[in-house]
Automatic annotation (TrEMBL):
<dbReference type="InterPro" id="IPR047057">
    <property type="entry name" value="MerR_fam"/>
</dbReference>
<dbReference type="InterPro" id="IPR009061">
    <property type="entry name" value="DNA-bd_dom_put_sf"/>
</dbReference>
<dbReference type="GO" id="GO:0003677">
    <property type="term" value="F:DNA binding"/>
</dbReference>
<feature type="domain" description="HTH merR-type">
    <location>
        <begin position="1"/>
        <end position="69"/>
    </location>
</feature>
<keyword id="KW-0238">DNA-binding</keyword>
<dbReference type="InterPro" id="IPR000551">
    <property type="entry name" value="MerR-type_HTH_dom"/>
</dbReference>
<dbReference type="Pfam" id="PF13411">
    <property type="entry name" value="MerR_1"/>
</dbReference>
<dbReference type="GO" id="GO:0003700">
    <property type="term" value="F:DNA-binding transcription factor activity"/>
</dbReference>
<protein>
    <submittedName>
        <fullName>DNA-binding transcriptional MerR regulator</fullName>
    </submittedName>
</protein>
Length: 118
């Protein structure tokens, strides 16, 4: 699929896709005889994973490190696993903190509902 179709499908601008290519997150994008990018289902699966990592607040530098390790092949499997496990722990901590904030907010809202705050 071409850049416009791919951009629409993954919900990223063409600018972002070109940037990801520039910084090494999106590698080996095929090109047609006119030099236009042609994206594959493999590119789609990879970008969906990158977006998921971004949505869970993994820093771009760590996503780039994961991409670099991925490019290295099977010799980096344990390193990739460790990177994802570290991110999982960070995500769990973040979720726990957000749940605490939510509980505090709900308590405050309940005070307003009960008319105990002026």
């Amino acid at each position: 699929m071409n850049m416009k179709e791919f951009s629409s499908l993954v919900g990223l601008s063409s600018y972002t896709l070109r940037y990801y290519e520039k910084i090494g997150l999106l590698k080996n994008v095929q090109r047609n005889s006119s030099g236009h990018r042609v994206y594959t289902s493999k590119d789609l699966r990879w970008i969906e994973f990158v977006k998921r990592l971004k949505d869970t607040a993994m820093p771009l530098e760590e996503i780039q490190e994961y991409a670099r390790l991925r490019e290295a092949g099977s010799s980096s499997v344990l390193q990739r696993q460790a990177l994802l496990e570290k991110h999982k722990r960070n995500l769990i901590d973040h979720i726990t903190q957000q749940q605490s904030h939510l509980a505090d907010l709900e308590d405050k809202i309940d005070l307003y509902k009960k008319g105990k705050v002026r």
